[in-house]
Structures are given as C-alpha cells and as structure tokens.
Amino acid sequence: MKGLFIISGLGVLAMLAEIFKFKRALYPIVLIGILAAFVANFMEFNNNMSIEPFNNMIRFDNIALAFSSVILITAFLWFILSNDYFNSETSLADHFSLVLFAITGALMLTAYSNMTTLFLGIEILSIPLYVLAASKKDDIKSNEAGFKYLIMGSFASAFLLFGIALIYGATGTFDVLLIRAKINTGTMPMFMYAGVIMMLVAMCFKVSAAPFHFWAPDVYEGSPTVITALMSTIVKTAAFAAFMRLFLIGFGGISDTWGMVLACIIALSLIISNVTAAAQTSVKRMLAYSSISHAAFMLMAILAVHAKFSVSSILYYTLAYSIGSIASFTVLYNVSKDGDETFDSFNGLAKRNPMIALGMLISMLSLAGIPVTAGFFAKYFIFTTLITSPYKWLLIVAVLTSCVGAYYYFKVVIAMYFKKSDKHEPVAFEMSHAMLLAITAALTILLGLMPDFIVGML
Amino acid sequence: MLTGFLILFPLIAALILFFIKGEGAKKVALIFSAVEFGFALMAYVWFRNNTMDALTINCNWVQSLGIKFAVGLDGISLLMVLLTTFLVPLIILSSFQTTYDKPNSFYGLILLMQSALIGVFVANDGFLFYVFWELALIPIYFICLLWGGENRAKITFKFFVYTLFGSLFMLIGLIFLYNHTGLDTGIKSWAINDLYAAGRSLTESQQTFVFWTIFIAFAIKMPIFPLHTWQPDTYVTAPTQGTMMLSGIMLKMGTFGLIKWLLPVVPLALEKWGGVAIGFAVVGIIYASCIAIVQKDYKRLIAYSSIAHVGLIAAGILSANQQGVQGGVIQMMSHGINVVGLFLIADILMRHTGTRDITKLGGIRSMNGQFGVLFLIIMLGAVALPLTNGFVGEFLLINGVFQFSAWMGALAALTIILGAVYMLRSYQAIMLGEKKSNEVTFGSLADTDKAVLIIVCIAVVAFGVYPKPLNDLAEPAVKALLMNLK
Questions:
Q1: How close B287 gets to chain A, by Cα (Å)?
Q2: Alpha-helical segments (H) within A134-189
Q3: How far A343 CA lies from chain B's nearest CA (Å)?
Q4: How far is the C-alpha of B419 from the C-alpha of B398, rounded, in Å?
Q5: Across residues A428-453, what is the average pLDDT?
Q6: Fewer C-beta within 10 Å: chain A N or C terminus?
Q7: Pick the residue with more confidence: B31 or A354?
Q8: What is the spatial distance between Cα B56 and Cα A166, in angstroms, rounded to a whole number?
Q9: Which residues of chain B does A376 touch, with a Cβ-Cβ cutoff of 8 Å?
Q10: Do residues A183 and A251 make contact, with C-beta atoms less than 8 angstroms apart?
Q11: Looking at the complex, does the CB of residue A147 fall below 8 Å from at least one CB of chain B?
Q12: Which A residues, 387 through 446, put their C-beta within 8 Å of a C-beta on chain B?
C-alpha cells in the first residue's frame, strides 16, 4: 500500500519539477523513490492487514505485494535503461510523470479487489501509455502507434465496462470476492456468462493475445524503443496480475464456461505469434510477436485454475520474462541507434563488443527457455501446472511453437556470433547500460539456479 | 562425491581454458581430459571395491518441487562415463593436426560438453537428467556453428530444433510422471525410483503417452528412422571433432536413456508398443545401410552406417531381455570407439588427399602400408568380425532381437551383411587397386594421428578378445534392471 502512495507521490512531484526547477535532480529522486517503494512493499509482506482501505476497493495481500515487487524491480531496471530518453527529451518532467502514473496504474492492477478499481487501474495505466507511444512527435510511425493504441485500447475498455455491467447486473456487486461467493452458491443468469466472456475478450486485448493482438506489433514497432520495453514488461506484468486475480479468484468457480474459449485463444496466440515472429526481419517486431507468445504461455497458468502453483508460476514467469526483455531491449536500443532494427544490425556483435553479445546471448537463451536460465524454469512451471488441467493438448502446441521460438531467438545469436559485419568499430555502450546487462544476466542465471526463492514466496 | 567431481572437473577445466590464449589451449585441454580419465578409472576401482557411498551425492536443489542434485553410478552408467572420459582425450588428440580459429573456445566447449554428458549418465534425478540433457546440446551447437563446414548455419539449426523438439516432449513425459509420484504421501519427487514407481502405477494408456513422449526425444538423439533426417548433414558439416563428440558420445545419451529412463518406467506400454518401436529401428537399419552402400562421400557413408548401428542397438534394448540390453550396452562402447576411429580416418583422408570422395581415391595402401593396416583393423571392428569388439555386442544384440521375434531378428541381422558390403567396398575403393590420379600422394601419418589410431586399434582387438571387464560391469546392472521390469 505504501509503495502505491510513494509512486503516485513521485508522479505528482515530477509534475512540479518543471515549475520549481529541479529537473536535474529528478532522475536520482525517482530511482531512490522506486527503491523506497520496493522496501516499503517488502516490509508489508506477510504482514496481513486487518483493515482494508477505501471500503474494500483495494487490497494488498501477499500476491499483490509479490507482483508489485516484480513491477518495481522492472521499473528500476527500466529507468536505468531509459536514462538517455530522459536526458534528450525537452519535456522531461512530463515524461517522468507519465511513466510514474502508468506504474501507479500497474500497481493498482495487482491489488484491486473491486471491479471499479480494476477499471480505474487499467485506465490510469493506459492513458499515459497512449501519450508515451506517440512521444516521438515528429515521427509518423510513433504517431500512428499512439493513435492505434488509443483506438484499440478504448475499444477494449468498452468491452471491459460492458462486461462489468453485465456481471453487476447478475450478482449485484462489484467486489471480486463477493462475486466469487455468489457464483459458488447459486445458478447465474445467462447474461452473467456473456459478461465473463466480454471481460475475457477485454483482458485478452490488454495482454495482446490472438486474435486481439493486431495492434501490438505496430504499436511496439512505432513507439520509441524504451517505451516498447515499458509496454512489454511492466504493462504485461500488471495486466497479468489483473487477469489472474479476476479469473483465478473471481471466476474460478465457473472455469468450465471460459476455459475452452481461453484454451483456443492460447493455441491461436501461440501459433500465430511464433510463426509470424519467425518471418520477421526487424528484431523489434520479432520481440513484439515473441511477447504475444509469452503472454500465451502465462495464460496457460490461468487456464490451470485449480493447480497449486498456478499463481506462483505466473509470478515467476513475469519476473523471468521482464528481466529477459529488459536485457534484450537494452541491447537493441544501443545496437539500433542508427535506426537499423533488423537482424543484420546484430551482425558480428560478438566481435564488436563481446560482453554485450554475451549479455544478449543469456537473455535470448532465457527467452527461448534453455536450462539453466530463468526462462527455462518459467516454462517448466507452466508445464507442471497445465498438465494437471483438462487442457493437456495445449502442451503439444506449446512444445511445437517453443521450437519455432528457439528458431528466431537463435537467429539473433547466429547473427551476433556467426555473421560478418561490414562495420568493425566497437559498439559504444554506456557504463550504466553495461551494468544493467550484467545485473540482468546475473539475475537470469541466479533465478535459474534458485527458483525456490520466488516460488516459495507465495 | 567422486561422481560430482567428475562433472565438476571438466567444467572448471573449460572455464580455465576460456582464459588461455593461443595454440597452447589444445595441450592444456588434452592434459585436463587425461586427468579426467584418471578420475574415471579411480571411480571404476572404487566401484569394484563397493565403496558406493563415496560415489553418490544426494542433496536438495529445489526443495519445494522435490528436485534433488542426486548422482550416482551403476554398472551401465559407469561404462558410459568410462567411454566418455576415454574418448574425449582421443578426440582432442585427433585435432592436433588441425588448426582451429580461437582454440581456447573450441576446446573449452568440448570440455563443457563432456561435463554435461557425464551429468546425463550419472543423474539419478529426473529433473537433473533433463537439465544435463539440454545443457549438452548448447556446446555442440556452437561447435558445429562456429567451426563447421559449408551451409553450417542452416544445417546446425535443423539439428538444434530437432533435438529441442524432442527434449520438450520428454519434459512433458517426465512432468507427467512427476505429477503421479507421491499420490499416497502427497510429497512429489523427481528421484528416479519414485519416477519408476509412478510409471508402473499408471494405466496402459497413460503409459503409452509417457512411452511415446519420452521415446521421441531418445529416437531423435540416436537417431532412429524416420527422425534421422538431421543426422547425415550435421555429421558431414560439423568439424571432425564435433562429429566425433556427436556420434561417439552424444548418440549414446539416447540409447542410455532408453535403458535407464524408459524401459523400467513403462513396462505395460513397452509390451504393447515395443514391437512398433523395434520395427522403426529395423527399418532404419536396412534403409541406412542401403543408402550407405551408394554413398560416395566417406564421411557421409560413416554417418549412415552410424544410423544402422544405432538402430540395432535400439532394437536390442527395446526387446528388453538380458542379451538384448547387455549387448546394447557393450555395443554402445564398441560403436563409440570404432566410430571415432572411422571419422578420424575420414579426416586424415581429407587432409592428405583433399577429398573424401571414394571414387576419386585408390591405392593408398601401396603408398602407406601402416595406415592400411590400422584402417583395416578399425574397419573390421565396425563390420563386427569375430575377435573384434564389434562382434561381441552385435552378436548379443541380434540374439536379443531374435528372442523377441524371429522375423525382426532375421531382418536386423541383415545389418551384418549390408555392413560388410559398404565397409569392405569403401575400403577396397579407397585403399586397394590403382591410384586414380597421379596428383594424389599420401605421405606418412602424423604422430598424433598414429597414436589415436593405434589406441583405437588396441581397444578394438582387446575388447574383442577379452570382453569380460565390460560384461562384468554390464551384466549385474542389466539383470537388476530387468528384475525391475517384472
């Protein structure tokens, strides 16, 4: 709870920075603030709150705190990645506050216990992102990305609202726990199920699962690289925390009605994303499609409603995926400074900067799910949860598409280690980015060696 | 503890190697691998003296999931460890005449792979087995990719995706088993005995699911028809040492897996589907032998012969009787040794004459009689002539398959005839007859090549005449395993 206050406070502070002229000090303040929020979060862990603030609107239980912590860690890493972005932009304070407000929304999404908070969280998260996606004002692609994101996002929000309304009509409450209780006690009118499916569609929009994924590649490609990194890590984590709370806790009792729909969505996402990713020439677009595929993997844990580990496996997956993504976006950002985002821009990176290539290699191995990286255990946990569910056939699809996944991740590896580049000068890398890569690589290996640490938390 | 050290030592050696610059790396790698062989021999002695406590490790890794770092040795895994540690120094020695770019990484990767391979052979925990299984793939992928021949990116990639595909299926099978452990106690575990028990408690249809998911992984690794299409290209494209690692040792992961991680787990499914699997293996034997007969590239010929040999090993193991499995274990040793010798011969031919095309070669024996003799001995080992090491294993294998089904046995026995055809034919074409072109000269062998070939020849003859040490290790282990099956 205190973490949420700190982050929203930071957002307000960032807006004031322009007026009171402490723009230069803002960057360290934000970093320290995020750390403070993380520590505050940590202190609240296992410290069950008896009073639920704001009339049960929001509830920071252990699950919420764990997901918030993942978001805060990722946010910290993300701010290190994007120091350039904040140095060069003129309207610096606005960007800071937009990002911080997006993170506020993300934190709300991990902890809501009421549908209205869910809606507020999603809007608080999304609206700054619409602006940030379009923040390269003179770039037509960036503008297109922002516009597309806005249209599609509003569309999804409409679905969400409609679903909430129908469910409210059936149960007479917005409270997730009360809805769960109502569902478990009696039969529900048909339109309640329609509401559930509408919410499912809306959430699938937000996590960019197929066939609601069409906005994602264009938005990811058009946005500035650091914003893409933000969208594919923090936003994803938050959306999954929300998705999970809604469907595991709220609608867990009627998983028969939405299970098959979700299973089809997952299968479709896996196939479409991986096959399309394999055909990409731009690394950024490849990462966009790969993020759809990872979303499908996380959805599998939601599908296995009754599995013991399904919450902790999503938690682990979000962390592993966020770290891997941040690392790959860091490298991409530096390699593609001249605007070339194709696989060719990675050619010969192993010669031009061996340490960076190593960092990228580890993150690619992790995203592909090769032991002993974090990504491997993430996939492993998903498999173990899913195998207890009735949707075992999805495993076959998951395995087949994982192999396709290995193909495009290794394309980067091949380019780095195998292809010759016409450029020979070493790739310049800022000290902070090199440190960031070292941290992510170490975390990836560490999480892979000691997965107990995260899984044992919940 | 020693078993853990056997895994750790090559790993440390590899890390040290990465920091050594220049050509000295190969010598350092050779010394490290020789020392490792010494440790393996020590393990052998301890094993014979029954100091088992000193050879096992059993400690927690991921407690909440029942994953342990459990390693240990039985007769079969000890033989595999001995094979691995015996071959790696030979493989490194065989590379002394070739200069590789960035030798430190090359030899480092070989030792890294050795570490993972030993891990596969000694793991007593299903999860650990899977992790080592996957880890063994990464170094060889890079060896093939960075030092391979033409078209390597595409071919290596096919190999990688193929094996990854199999591994993931195996993971599903293993997780399925894991989920059925501890149904009465509620404590899930990856320990091998718990997985065995879980597997046997399954119904026939569940066992069938486990059988095929795990079998695919092993079948791809070996490879068994029709999952072999990655193999010839990969073997030909990989650098000689990579090919040797692949065919000499890595292939044995699959056959070893059959023995330890499939047979005892799913007896019912084996009874029902074993015949079909043997059928695939036998078809592969005949198919690969026929293709080998018409091959012109000697390296590709050996690659196909390897499919035929491993098909027979798999058929013998899947017949699940004493002769078959024991023959499989012994033939794994013999095939490993022989195939390293054969691939070195292919490499020597390439280096001395510039071609591996057997239609362009001829009359080499008259230019270098010594090479002719060494080649002949190794080739006869591969043909499985009595008194060579190949004979002991193949005899037991065919006997085993014959007990399973007379028809299958008869078809599998064709491998001996067909094997003799392509091996003798190629020997004749390369070594005997007239020189095909006047430009080809064949000087004396380099000392290191000669040393490797002589060691291989000694092994071929020694184990052919006196296979008792191998049998002594394999027999009780196989007996214990088959007792489990009933």
A1: 28
A2: 140-171, 176-185
A3: 15
A4: 14
A5: 87
A6: C
A7: B31
A8: 62
A9: 134
A10: yes
A11: no
A12: 387-388, 395-396, 399-400, 402-403, 406-407, 410, 414, 417-418
B142–A380 C-beta distance less than 8 A: no
Which of B134, B165, B176 faces A371 most closely, judged by CB atoms? B134
How many helices (H) and strands (E) would you count in chain B? 21, 2
Average confidence (pLDDT) over A147-174: 91
Could B64 and A400 be called an inter-chain contact, meaning their C-beta atoms sit closer than 8 Å? no
* pLDDT tens-digit readout, A392-436: 888 888 888 888 888 889 888 888 877 777 776 777 778 888 889
Are the beta carbons of A417 and B142 separated by less than 8 Å?
yes
pLDDT of the residue at A320: 93
State how far residue A218 is from chain B, nearest Cα, in angstroms: 29
Give residue-wise pLDDT tens across range B272-281. 888 899 999 9
CA distance B144 to chain A (A): 11
Total of domains in chain A: 1
8 Å CB contact between B289 and B308 = yes
Q: What is the pLDDT of residue A366?
A: 92
User: How far, in Å, CA of A315 to CA of A320, rounded?
Assistant: 9
Q: How many residues does chain A have?
A: 458
Distance of CA B127 to the CA centre of its chain: 21
**Chains A–B, number of C-beta pairs less than 8 Å apart:** 65
- Predicted local distance difference test score (pLDDT) of residue A33: 92
- The answer to whether the CB atoms of A399 and B160 lie below 8 A apart is no
Quickly tell me which residue has 């792979």 as its tokens: B113
The question of ipTM being above 0.90 is answered as no
Cβ <8 Å between B172 and A418: no
Structural domain that includes position A169: 2-455
Of B243, B215, B210, the closest CA to residue B227 belongs to B215
Residue A83's pLDDT band (boundaries 50, 70, 90)?
A: confident
A451 touches B: beta carbon within 8 Å? yes
- Domain ranges, ordered by start, for chain B: 268-486
